[in-house]
Prior knowledge:
6 strands, 31% helix, globular, Pnp Oxidase, Chain A, single chain
Amino acid sequence: xxxRETNRQVIQGFRAGEDLPGMHRERLLLxxxxxxxxxxxxxxxxxxxxxxxxxxxxxxxxxxxxxxxWCLNLRAQPAVTVEVGDQExxxxxxxTASVLxxxxxxxxxxxxxxxxxxxxxxxxxxxxxxxxxxxxxx
Length: 138
């Protein structure tokens, strides 16, 4: 099974309120971005980190050399839609995505690395700084 089919099944199960084998629903969100070339909506399931009332996603792409498509899309069009797994029954909401920079990124990244050490492994493999993206309700 390819990742697109896996994502399709996760999205369907997430929206249906089902258990998601091998995943922690309370750490999962669906992010819908607008394709930078197509203008079409693309939904991607991903882990999130929440701290001090802020919501973050990490564009690690498992340490790949380039940012994931969803990150490239939100850089071109920061208006996104968010569906959060720890808020079951809550409707999707509009948000603005912003890639953290400087001291803010360093502080948030340090906390993410402490809590989720696999992201450190991703950063070690990646020949780029992994973006940390804040999703702020619009």
